[in-house]
Amino acid sequence: MENIKELFDNLRSQCENEVIEFKEAKRNFDKGDLRKYFSALSNEANLRGLDFGWLVFGVEDKTHAVVGTSFALGKENLEQLKNKVAQNLTERITFRDIHEVIEDGKRVLIFKIPAAPRGLPVAYNGQCYGRQGESLVSLDPSKYDEIRNQRLYLDWSAGVIPEATLEDLDEKAMEKARDRFKRYILIMQRMWTSGTIGHFSKE
Q1: Could you give the maximum distance between any two Cα atoms of the chain, in Å?
Q2: b vs e for 40-60, b when ≥16 Cβ sit within 10 Å of the residue's Cβ?
Q3: Around Cβ 25, how many Cβ atoms within 10 Å?
Q4: pTM of the predicted model, to two decimals?
Q5: Is residue 52 helix, strand or coil?
Q6: Contact 118, 152 (CB under 8 A)
Q7: DSSP β-bridge partners for residue 113
Q8: What is the per-residue pLDDT across 108-133, written as a single tens digit (0 to 9) for each?
Q9: How many CB atoms lie within 10 A of CB 31?
């Protein structure tokens, strides 16, 4: 379980960037703009290999002073907000969590925004959004293509770990791999002998 106070202190200590946005939103905030920021932070989190982006209400964006917010007061309103925001967003994606934290007697909301799924940019009303620094913009075509060209599943076996050495290899795993390879060769030889597959090339 997340330590919400620790999470807030960590976010507040950072500058506003492509995956962290601070808004005063003292009383209200336009739902359409909220969906645009969702789209932007979700897409940028994907591009940076992060699991989540963050939107924080009740904090001044330049000084990070806590001003408090009365937006969507009450747990029922926060739960309804999750459903409302999902409308007109790709695959009806919505906030993973909405955390409330009281700082200096003032209410702050922390929106936990999941990264866009691999290969699927998040759009609001058909428009994908992104960030240029701390600015909300239409998603750059190159960023759009980068997300669209992602494979659905990562092939972990094709990855390269530069700092790895032979000492990192697990002996039991290596024995199992050798045994599987030997079995594969035996099966291929039998198939070749029986004529199930063509003769191997001598080259």
Answers
A1: 81
A2: bbbbbbbbeeeebbbbbbbbe
A3: 22
A4: 0.75
A5: strand
A6: yes
A7: 53
A8: 999 999 999 999 999 999 999 999 98
A9: 13
Cα 95–Cα 97–Cα 99 angle in degrees, nearest 5: 125
The Cα 129–Cα 121 span in angstroms is: 9
Phi, psi torsion values for 97, nearest 5 degrees? -150, 155
Cβ distance 44 to 130 under 8 Å?
yes
62, 113 contact by CB (below 8 A): no
- Residue 53, classed as helix, strand or coil, is strand
List Cα–Cα distances, 109 to 63, 176, 178, in angstroms: 17, 51, 54
Taking the C-alpha atoms of residue 82 and residue 98, their distance in angstroms, rounded to an integer, is 8
Supply angle C-alpha 124, 137, 127, rounded to 5: 25
Q: How far is CA 4 from CA 11, 16, 27, 42, 100, in A?
A: 10, 19, 22, 20, 8
- pLDDT tens by residue, 10-36: 999 999 999 999 999 999 999 999 999
Helices (H), the chain: 4-12, 31-47, 75-86, 141-148, 171-194
C-alpha closest to that of 109 among 17, 22, 173: 22
CB atoms near residue 181 (< 10 Å)? 10
